[in-house]
Amino acid sequence: MVVAIVAPIVLVAAFTVLKSHHDLTTVTLSQRQMIAFLTATTIQEKFERLTAIGVSLATRVRFQQLVHARQWDEAVAILRRVPQDFPFIERVFVADPHGTLMADAPALPGVRGQNFAYRDWYQGVSRTWEPYVSDAYQRAAAPPYHVIAAAIPITNEQSLIAGILVLQVRLQSLLAWMHTGELGPAGVVYLVDRQGQMAAHPEVMPNGDLKNVSYVPVVQKVLRGERGVAIVSDPTAQEARVIAYAPVPGYGWGVLAEQPTRTAFASRDQELRRLGLAYGVVVVASSAFAYWMLRTLTERRRAAQQISALNADLQRWAADLESANKELEAFNYAVSHDLRTPLTSINGFSQALREDYGAILDAQGHDYLRRIVGATQRMADLIDALLALSHVQTASEHYIRQRGVKPARGSDVTPQI
User: Fold this and answer.
1) Domains and CATH numbers, the chain
2) Burial of residue 39 (number of CB atoms within 10 Å: 0-12, 13-18, 19+)
């Protein structure tokens, strides 16, 4: 009975807890993956906007004419207000088709005339002569902090390459663009470029050395354009981490949302503890109810056994009583008949004595004779009473045999006669 009552509840509780664990885990992982996807989409939009600004600037007719005429300072003068109009653009400069910086705004000493053909922005834009957003790199001018660059080819009226417009953006701006990705306690959302460098990480100084994490499996996946979420062990921190990753479409970059499992699944674990506690209370209550039922039925069975035993004893006592009554009846019958014979003789002789010798008896003799007759009469009355008692007992036994001795029901142990 205990198994029949408690076991189904335990099975349902186990199934519910396991399913809740699976569902809550799936929801948590999906949320992290969605954060990574939304952040990647935001970065894509920012890169597209940066590229669109560069294209709109590079396609100005007057600007194209000045670049084609190699009037670099006049061409850059047209763009001098770009950093004020677009605060996230830190600096603009114009390079010739070979990658040599010809003019910049705001102007920095020591960079004009330098060739930057080795930079990723030049190699990227010169490959197809299409707008290109570079990987993170350390700029040559002081102070040497890290930037990215959007390189836009400048064409002339004959659609020939006349120069390259470059818009530089500091990595702090990338961090500002990623504020949409909030994971919670100990969670970080960071950006890696095509080389696997941490281009924007909340816990890494933008002016510090760029850390290359291309060896990390999830980074390799996101750089291949894959999207997903994984639980990865971190030997350094000695804990597992949830890492969701999503590529920045069209740019080869990737976004990773990383958080320790202890905080990522904190709400899930709290909900499972609450659910487990609730089912624990149900199991304890069911066990107590089953124990109460089992004890009640055991007591009822024990009471029924005791009643059966009492009824058996009553039947046995009734049989013994019937046997004793039969013996008493036989005894009464025998005694009554055995005693009546001498009384009859005494009574008969007393009557004969009165009739034959009444004349010669004096008063005292007649008194003795009267006392003898009275005593025999009282003795006869006693014998008649004894026989009547025997008849009453016989009638009672006949009634018992007709009705029987029935066992009592419930907790009543009184025999029903």
Assistant:
1) 2-50+181-264 (3.30.450.20), 52-174 (3.30.450.20), 271-403 (1.10.287.130)
2) buried
